[in-house]
């Protein structure tokens, strides 16, 4: 326990995600997690669940699924792609990836990214960012090229904006980092509130 006049030690950050993209994004804030934990939760959308509610729920469930010591702050995030109210999860196979690319081709969609922080006092905070993205109309050759790259597998909505798919984006309004996997504006504010010095 600290006494009056003693500096309070900075909290240790636990990243409740094994995503290298989220770890890289945290690095842009000058932060390196003290440890990384893999939350084990069911990511199936609930019946009728809207995209914003979905990512906020999953971000919080991921953060709560990780054990936290008294000096630790847990950070978790979740990102999904939605066409209208339809949530596009990670493609199950190549045919599913092609179906998603066909849905995204030539139209706007939403990338919604939720972030949850549980501070040392156990206070839970959840925020989200919604970004509008529009793809060009994809030709059959472009779909074949992207599917063959393997980049879209394991990605929400079947694409990675930080990779080859960025060449398909003709319009983006909102947070680019949120599309990648972690909204940095919201994350920075939440971590500052949790006791991190971020300049």
UniProtKB/TrEMBL annotation:
Keyword Signal: no
Catalytic activity annotation: dTTP + H2O = dTMP + diphosphate + H(+); UTP + H2O = UMP + diphosphate + H(+)
Entry's localization field: Cytoplasm
Site (Important for substrate specificity) residue list: 21, 79, 162
Pfam family for this entry, one: Maf
EC category: hydrolase
InterPro entries associated with the record: ITPase-like_fam (IPR029001), Maf-like (IPR003697)
Protein name (Swiss-Prot/TrEMBL): dTTP/UTP pyrophosphatase
Residues forming the catalytic site: 78
Annotated GO biological process: nucleotide metabolic process
Cofactor: a divalent metal cation
Enzyme Commission identifier(s): 3.6.1.9
Gene Ontology, cellular component aspect: cytoplasm
Signal peptide per UniProt: none
């Amino acid at each position: 326990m600290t006494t009056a006049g003693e500096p309070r030690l900075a909290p240790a950050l636990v990243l409740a995600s094994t995503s290298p993209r989220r770890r890289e994004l945290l690095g842009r804030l000058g932060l390196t997690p003290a440890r990384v934990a893999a939350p084990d939760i069911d990511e199936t959308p609930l019946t009728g669940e809207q995209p914003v509610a979905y990512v906020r729920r999953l971000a919080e469930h991921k953060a709560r699924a990780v054990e936290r010591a008294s000096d630790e702050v847990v950070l978790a995030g979740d990102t999904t792609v939605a066409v209208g109210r339809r949530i596009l999860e990670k493609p199950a196979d190549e045919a599913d990836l092609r179906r998603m690319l066909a849905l995204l081709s030539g139209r706007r969609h939403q990338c919604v990214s939720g972030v949850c922080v549980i501070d040392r006092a156990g206070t839970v905070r959840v925020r989200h960012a919604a970004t509008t993205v529009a793809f060009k109309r994809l030709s059959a050759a472009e779909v074949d090229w992207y599917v063959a790259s393997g980049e879209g597998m394991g990605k929400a909505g079947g694409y990675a904006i930080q990779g080859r798919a960025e060449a398909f984006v003709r319009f983006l309004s909102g947070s680019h980092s949120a599309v990648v996997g972690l909204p940095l504006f919201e994350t920075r504010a939440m971590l500052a509130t949790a006791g991190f010095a971020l300049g």
